[in-house]
Design goal:
274 residues; TIM Barrel; eight-stranded parallel β-sheet; 12 strands; 36% helix; 21% strand; globular; Xyl_isomerase-like_sf; DUF692 domain-containing protein; MbnB/TglH/ChrH
């Protein structure tokens, strides 16, 4: 990731599936929500076992609000830095989104207008984070159920400008790409041709479901075939260093999780880890 070794297929570590994750014989890469890890004290047993095995664990933030108009909260950045150090992480990741404004917490990742003002805000906050965290950051474009009116930039232009100006790497979520394209009525593969794929640090893969005519990136459903097809389309263009299954809630039996991991491996050409 920092030096771009190949990690293959991984999974997001969650306490509810810690035993399953620990038992994956071929696992070399996992991700943990940064805000769920204490900066001091003992790590959860499952995480410590993975570290002891030499598994690379990436802290993934959900609360920095990089796209907010206000500067990122120094205390949150300090916590992120401490977690990265504890996990000996070669990389951190966060979202291109905002989660608070005027002191009000939204509780959700909210999309930014694709404006140059928004680019400025994200780049400034990324630089603040990078001044405090000594490892690279990868930025994840989110799934959004709406677009702001009068966008100045296309999605590809918006993301590329943020990456170019901030020096950040890309955390590409193919499930988000699929969800946005499906809800907009566009071809998801078109975005792949507009992004600097060589800057991908790793890739998220997740399931979703349609509700009231909109496709939601739920993380609680099996990975659908169109998302796996998009993994294949991505890897035909550029093979990323790692791909990771995200599952957050409504956890299925181990066999179903293993089937998702095997399907991602098959779509990407990486070895199975189950």
């Amino acid at each position: 990731m920092g030096s771009r070794p190949s990690y293959g297929v991984g999974i997001g570590w969650r306490p509810e599936i810690a035993g399953f994750v620990e038992g994956l014989p071929g696992l070399r890469f996992a991700e943990v929500v940064a805000e769920s890890v204490h900066a001091h004290g003992e790590l959860p047993t499952g995480l410590q076992v993975l570290l002891d095995r030499g598994v690379t664990i990436i802290p993934h933030g959900v609360r920095l609000s990089l796209g907010g108009a206000e500067p990122v909260d120094p205390a949150r950045v300090e916590h992120f830095a401490a977690v990265a150090e504890r996990l000996r992480a070669p990389l951190i990741s966060e979202h291109i989104a905002f989660v608070r404004a005027g002191g009000i917490e939204a509780g959700h990742l909210l999309p930014l207008p694709r404006s140059r003002e928004a680019v400025d805000a994200v780049v400034a906050n990324v630089r603040r984070v990078q001044a405090a965290v000594p490892v690279p950051i990868a930025l994840e474009p989110i799934a959004a159920l709406f677009d702001w009116p009068d966008d100045e930039l296309t999605e590809g232009q918006f993301l590329t400008e943020i990456l170019d100006r901030s020096g950040a790497q890309l955390l590409l979520d193919v499930a988000n790409v699929y969800a946005n394209a499906r809800n907009r009525g566009t071809d998801p593969a078109e975005l792949l041709d507009q992004l600097p794929l060589e800057r991908i640090a790793y890739v998220h893969v997740a399931g979703g479901a349609e509700h009231q005519g909109l496709y939601h990136d739920t993380h609680t459903d099996a990975v659908p075939q169109p998302v796996l097809d998009l993994v294949g389309a991505l890897c035909a263009r550029h093979v990323p260093p790692a791909l990771m299954l995200e599952r957050d809630g409504d956890y299925p039996p181990a066999a179903a999780l293993a089937a998702d991991l095997d399907a991602i491996a098959k779509a990407s050409g990486y070895p199975v880890i189950t």
